[in-house]
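Notes from the pairing session

We agreed to fold both candidates in a single pass and log them together. This is the raw record for the first candidate, unedited. Please don't reformat it; downstream parsing expects exactly this layout.

Candidate A
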Amino acid sequence: MSVLKKYLDQISAGKAVNYNKFLKALPPQYQNRKHELFSTELIAPNAWLVTILDDQVHSELSSLAETSKSRLHAADQGNSHRTSTTVSYLLTYHELSPDKRPDIVYLDERQTVQGFDSKKQLLLIENEENFFQYALMCSAVSLAVGEPVSLKNTDVALGSGMKVCTELSVQWYNNYDRVLCAFDYDLAGLQMFASIKDRLQDKAVFVQPDDYSTWLSSFKKAPDSAVKLQKARELAERLGFTELSQVFADTRKFMEQELMLKMVLDE
């Protein structure tokens, strides 16, 4: 059930809701018309009786609140981005890659099409700069995890930010015995890893060193806010990355994965 549908059901049943949270669940065009569309009565702290003044608007919101069955259905509801695509692709390098051009893996709900046999291990790289320098990244990851990582034993895929967590992509990752996640050492990187680990469990491995002492100078990026830094520390603790959490606390900085390339070049 969508958040919006939950609130609409409560309103229809005459139950009080958190009005501010209800407004946040609305599409912007309805938020901007709140004074003409809704009447409210505060009956307790953060508890409002809400009346939807326009039956047509009520009908529109009810339609929007229904879980989208497809990207087309979501577009018909006014926002295709509410639903994942039914077709996707991944850029990859593998042992048979003839040159610098990455291969393409085609994914949809019924099939996977790829022109190579998968290795047992996958290396997921968050951003393009590191992905296209996959040989250097394999060397950097080898140093971090303490074992050889190359196209001889590992396929490499581009994560492309949050696209790395889409359902079709994760289903493909699940074909591997082990998925090494090379992401930025910040809140977003940990959130992406946590999302993947929730679904892949022990197959998912966050690329990091046993000892961060030689990496401390690479923590250079100031967080956007103290809140993000604190959330990153808390998530690192929940994931069992105690030393990384302490590094965040000591340096007050994050680390971008491009600096992994510099570590290899400085060797």
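Candidate B (folded immediately after A)
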Amino acid sequence: MPLQYYIYVAGMGLSVVLAALLLRESNRSASKLPEAWRKTRSFKKFRLSIWFLMIYLFLNLLSEIIAIYLALHQIYNSFIYSIGHTLYFPFFLFFLHCFTYTRWKNYAYFILYAVVIVYYILGGYYHPRCILSSESSLLTNGTHFISIILLLTDLLLSPKSDYFKFQLRICLTFMIFSIFAAILTSAQWTNTTDHKMFSDLIFYLHYFNSVVLYYVISLIFLLEITKLRRKQVKNA
């Protein structure tokens, strides 16, 4: 397997491992907190959100490993991305739901997911021999971007809320990734030249954008783990 695949999968795996460690540290931190604080709604939602994010990242990793395996054996793998996105996207929406206070926005998350499912069904993208189009990538990134915007409008209204920085960092990271991915996909889609250099440039920019996403997410988890450990030492 080429080195670039190892670097990509390693980044995804690291994000899953650090999400699990963050969940463990939050549980340890909870055991040392007063019972009244452990039962607060914000702390419960924080821990639940980490669970959702960890499952999202794990299913994403699993989907990518299967897709890479099939690609290396010259087997159609587009349907793996469709099925994978169908399975892991709800957990990303559940993560956003944990910090969303406006009821209609929670309904909007459901509508966004329904749009994705209908698109895949009508496009025949669950078929083992399907080939995903550029529009499907735009839909994937677009639904992520819109869902994050829905949360940010709630989040920015309460900047002093618990775990605000953690939520903001995660949301902005995914949002920036989605924007760049959509721009690169559009550039690839509208390209009318046959220059290999341009195609290679778009490919490597896509790759760099995807790899950086998971390493930045891992860094955010690491910062939060460090923060929780410092609190434990301070309260010891």
